[in-house]
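Quick question about two entries, pasted in order.
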Amino acid sequence: MVKENPYELLYMSRLKDRYAFEALFRQTRGILYNVISQSTNGYKPLYPHKDDIFQEASIVILKAVDGYREDRDTAFFTYYLLLARRRVWNICKHYTRKVTKLGDMISLDEMVMEDESLYEAVPQKDSMNDPVYAMDYRSAMERLGILVNGLSESEKDALEAWVTDEPYREGAERRGLSYKAWDGRRLRIRRKVRRAVMKD
């Protein structure tokens, strides 16, 4: 299933299209959930409030739809991420006052700079913990799966040879092809994969 274009959904959302707005919310909820997970995992007293924080932070999609400007050199998902981090941090501060002692709350505030969110303050050990990266990665894998399903047998063979790093000359001899013909076949499949994976 091909993901709907977020910019088309954004445009339709501004025209009060309910379906487009809900579709855009589904596309962004993974980013929001990952931001919340990073924040609550980095400060354990917040973890039991994860679902409540998600509910309260979900309103950020309204601000993103209203505030995003296409003429600025920022992708919509990046803009949404910035808003989500700020919103989640403010909510986390509110819950922190509820669940921690004053001394603990002060130490939490001290670990974050004024213009920095808790998400940014907690060290990220894995690229998949970056919500935008994770979302882009999943989208790329979906596109790759669609591409592979539509390949011919010879293209799948070339793809397997590329993935397994089969030596060129050995591959050409095994298939009864000239080195140049086999090289061309592998080059074409690499280009197809890169176009699919790197597509915006």
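Here is the second entry:
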Amino acid sequence: MKQEQKNEQAQHMQKIALADLSAYVQKLLQLPVFVIQTEQADQKDHALLITLVGDLGAGKTTFVQALAKELGVTESVLSPTYVIMKSYDIPAANQNRNTEQTISARRFAKLVHIDLYRLDKPEELSALKLGAVLADPANLVCIEWPERAGTLLPRPDLHLHLSSDGASEAERFVEIIQG
């Protein structure tokens, strides 16, 4: 990527200190895509899909780790590069943190973390049975390297572009695009 393009891209991105990533995720969980009225919680007919784009070391897995922590996942969240897909249970206690609205976990029972980096061809996705994963409204699905899926993924509810270009080791740039 040319330097001018990188500079233009950085203008649209927010610099986040990795030490503040949990607070950033908490704010993100307040976006309309996550916050729905309790009476609407059961009306969604598909998983919420977050795609994460960025170079190696941009912070995609680090973001998913912070998200998992904020959702109450107690398991250690590691990059699923070699297993490609890993699911984590979201504790039910996080599903009713606010009496007026179901926030963040809304209807989610599972966080599904997928890393498509090792995918050679989009057709290899069929082995993951991704259709069933994305059809389940109880799933919150985060996909790293979604570009490796070609056109086989639906439009994401939320698209995050992460970059370490021009950032120190302790910070990253993040751009959020709502689907």
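Reply: Helices lie at 3-11, 21-28, 60-70, 130-135. Residues 3-178 form a domain with the Rossmann fold fold (CATH 3.40.50.300). Hope that helps.
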